[in-house]
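Researcher: Dear colleague, please comment on this protein.
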Amino acid sequence: MFESLTDRLNGVFGKLTSRGRLSEQDIDAALREVRMALLEADVDFKVARQFINDVKEKAKSEEVFASLTPGQTVVKIVQEELVQILGGEHVGISRADRPPTVILLVGLQGAGKTTAAAKLASKLNKEKQTVMLAACDLQRPAAIDQLKQLGTQIGVDVYSEDPGKSSPVQVARNAVKKAAYDNTFYLILDTAGRLAIDDDLMRELEEIRDATNPVETLLVVDAMTGQDAVRSGSEFNDRIGITGMIMTKMDGDARGGAALSMRSVTGVPVKFMGVGERADALEDYHPDRLASRILGMGDVQSLIEKAQDQFDEQKALELEQKMRKSQFDFNDMLQQFQTIKNMGPLDGILGMLPGMGAIKNQIKDVDERKMAQVEAIILSMTPHERSNPALINGSRRKRIADGSGTSPTQVNQLLNQHKQMQKMMSRFFKGGKKRALMGMFGRS
């Protein structure tokens, strides 16, 4: 996400930071380019104009011109202002005083409401909260079946009724009663959408809202529709009164203008963003982290959180003991590869590393192919060979190569890499570093 905007801004600020001193003309020229980059990224023109005016006012202070690194000071100002237009601070989900906390999802057809409902349920479920989904979309064929299927995949109950005998309002009202009876903490209502905003849709949503008294009314918007998403956000807010937004398909939007405009235009915070198809591909929306990503500075905090989600403390302790004794084998290597894969697409991970945004597209395909190749080689080994790499002789190499669709030379390269890794780990632990892996994740 934001690839085109990030590339343009990196070019502008690269020129700016390479200068020893800056004049007002230098800043004006750079900000003209920034403004064009924002407009090309489909940012609302009023938002872009206000952003440039705010940056210009701060950038022309004596503090910038007196700085030893004026270019970097301007970039810092831009980052601070980006955080503000993106929403300022992270805003999480509100909770009811007693169960259930009703979350009403609304939006246009095709925005991804049903998928977003399941992703949000999965996220809350992982936080050790009881969750139930309610199928209130009785308009779209197979909407109930889709939600039930998703509920089964993520291990969350779905409340539904016969669409021929119930209305969406009745389903929603009965779902609240069921959730209260079961003492379910979160109830997520998946509602119908339309291709365009109309009175029938809004009236139905108003009735569901009034019948269920939701703590959160979240608008689900497709980031790839750009300013159409911003306009629909304003209309839904005026009529229904939304408390937050979920931006879907953020991973498919190279421009990102909708995300940059949403808070400023609607006055409503974005709370989550969808970054992929998987059930866990829903991230909390942090304006400061997003601003860093846009400026190519990475997002290390989100990367650490992703790693911690996949982190098994007991397995890490066992792995550390094996590393200390130089017993790190191919079973361990395969486990680490699978942990990285579970963190999400490699390009998303690379984009969170500072300085990697500009080159991630150049190395993404190569690295993903290489990882798949290594995984195939390891899986072509017998369990005994994985535990005892020293057993792998010439004939075994050929068999492994044939089984993985690689060559004996590539198998040999992996064996050599494994030996090098063992040597490095041995040196790392010789210095008496205690609980090194645990320390990486801030654990004692």
Q: What stands out?
A: Confidence is low (pLDDT under 50) at residues 432-444.
